[in-house]
Amino acid sequence: MTTNTMAPIDASTSGVAENVRLDFAKSAPKVFRALIGFDAAAREGLDPALVELIQVRASHLNHCAYCLHMHTNDARKAGESEDRLHMVAVWREAPHFFSARERAALALTEAVTLVAADGVPDDVYAEAATHFDDRELAQVLALTFAINTWNRVALSTAKRAGTDQR
Q: Rounded to two decimals, what is the model's pTM?
């Protein structure tokens, strides 16, 4: 068995070109526009602060630095506090930073994002259903689906944190 012991090449200092992956938006524009439309529809009627908390938490779980950078910046622009942004990753240990509604949304986001591990437990779903009506709950689910898709697009195409050009 051969083990690759070579360190990754830092293209910024080595003069070697980066491993460039496809530009998803240019290569599949119809799909990209559909994702943008799905994302916009998923956000409708939800509190913008809650939208960003959901997107930040899913991006943490998926290890998507590109989306995490983008959505923490969007959250700041929307007035979110640094304290709350720092606590999203450990929201269970800092419940006083978040409302019961936000905690229910974060728990549901985690369950849906990590669905392969344990499914979506009935108690997590039931708690979310006590804080959101059916339309809102569907929006929270759709937003979670959308950010998980965006995380996968960014990770698969090696998007670099800090390069968002919106």
A: 0.86
CA angle, 30 then 40 then 55, to 5°: 110
Distance between CA atoms of residues 118 and 105, nearest Å: 17
Give which of 36, 18, 39, 20 is closest to 28, Cα–Cα. Answer: 36
The contacts of residue 83 (CB under 8 Å, 6+ apart) are: 97
Q: Which two tokens stand for residue 52?
A: 């960003």
Q: What is the pLDDT of residues 137-153, one digit of tens each?
A: 999 999 999 999 999 99
Instruction: Quote the CA–CA distance of 111 and 131 in Å, as a whole number.
Output: 16
- Tell me how crowded residue 147 is: count the other CB atoms within 10 A of its CB: 27
Name 117's Cβ contacts closer than 8 Å, sequence gap at least 6. none
